[in-house]
Amino acid sequence: MCTLEKRGDLFLLTLTGDDEHRFHPDTISSVLSLLEQAKSQSTRGSVLITTAHGKFFSNGFDLAWAQAAGSQTGAVNRMHQMVESFKPVIAALFDLPMPTIAALNGHAAASGLMFALSHDYVFMRNDRGVLYMSEVDLGLPLPDYFAAMFAAKIGTSIAKRELLLSGKKIKGEEAVALGIVDSAAHDSVEGVVEATVSLGESLAAKKWNGEVYASIRKSLYPGLCAMLSLTAKIAASP
Amino acid sequence: MCTLEKRGNLFLLTLTGDNEHRFNPDAIATILSLLGQAKSQAKRGSVLITTGHGKFFSNGFDLAWAQASGSLTGAAERLHQMVESFKPVVGALLDLPMPTIAALNGHAAAAGLMLALSHDYIFMRKDRGVLYMSEVDIGLSMPDYFAAMVRSKIGTSAARREVLLSGKKIRGEEAVALGIVDSAAHDSAEGVVEATVGLAEKLAAKKWNGDVYASIRKSLYPELCEILGLKATIFATPKL
């Protein structure tokens, strides 16, 4: 389902298996647990890279599991459970005491895109993979912390509208133009991962104090952090 | 003064007459009423396009009407009345359960630019028409919801400064470069309207649930919605 490896300074979080990597309560707990592990093992110079196998980075919440509840109320409860339990995953990424990079092997939709955007850097492929906020097409309003994420991370009104109100499937080049991702320069998964490893290594070489890094990161997104119950200030000895 | 037509899925709101389409209390009340009508007739696939006739989309509030009160206090009161009564128009657009497109036939200034910015998409002419926030030149400070709109919809600090603090008359190409409008590709009002109809038909084909669309839209602008007294969350039955 997902693994955490250590390669020198780099933590590599991988969503394994050639499937849609949908976020289901079990996956959500595993990802949360692995992020906590990375946090506990972090040192100066640590960096996280998150990636996945196959065609999908993640296609969002496990809507089939929600529907399997057998009733409308049951489905809504299960949706609500996934929305609530996913919030700490986002918080854990914002709180992580190291730079974070999402290396998108493929499509990132809905909460899968939220997961990607929770990283400091997002790299995607030029040739394959789209970003897609499916909510307007599915008829689902946005959870509050999703809306806060977009308000925080996506700068222009036009980019916000394209992502959230157009039902568009946004490819690499456009995602860079809209300022949503940092790079869509590579025509293969290997290319993307290599580029993120290279960025990871140059960030690691700075040997930053991770607590301070996280504190500065959180101070950029006060609204979102308040919603995630994260406090931004720490006392650090400079 | 203004009309609402229906063409298939599209609602076409037009500021009629070859004048400055200034917003006085009557015009404001009419627009609000027509937006209410569009809302009540909305269904999946509805889209609104707002446009004007002549050289102006709208040149803002009716300052001549304000001054006609005959005294400085009277003028200030009339201006205040227009500012307050226009707020629900902006609110109605942000709340409208369908995608909204402003097709600028000409100049959009002050409250006229606010009307344009209240839409999801803005198309303007390449060859004619400017965007202009006149307040700094006239010596009027900004109503709270105007400032919130500019903060919400205009992304960069440099663009906000160009719009509010330079007294500049911004033409199509620059408006696109500043990220204020989506398109300034056409050299005629007809071209702009045709392009907006093309976009509207694509959006209409999605047959979106309008209440969900409006909910997502409002959740993008929480600060502005709060100032306008709009709530963002709704409970919707998803298409699971």
Automatic annotation (TrEMBL), chain A:
CDD domains: crotonase-like. Pfam families: ECH_1 (PF00378). SUPFAM superfamilies: ClpP/crotonase (SSF52096). It comes from the Eukaryota. This is Uncharacterized protein. It comes from Brassica rapa subsp. trilocularis. The gene is A04p009510.1_BraROA.
TrEMBL record, chain B:
Transmembrane segments: none annotated. It comes from the Eukaryota. It holds the Pfam family ECH_1. InterPro entries: ClpP/crotonase-like_dom_sf, Enoyl-CoA_hydra/iso. This is Enoyl-CoA delta isomerase 2, peroxisomal-like. It comes from Brassica rapa subsp. trilocularis.
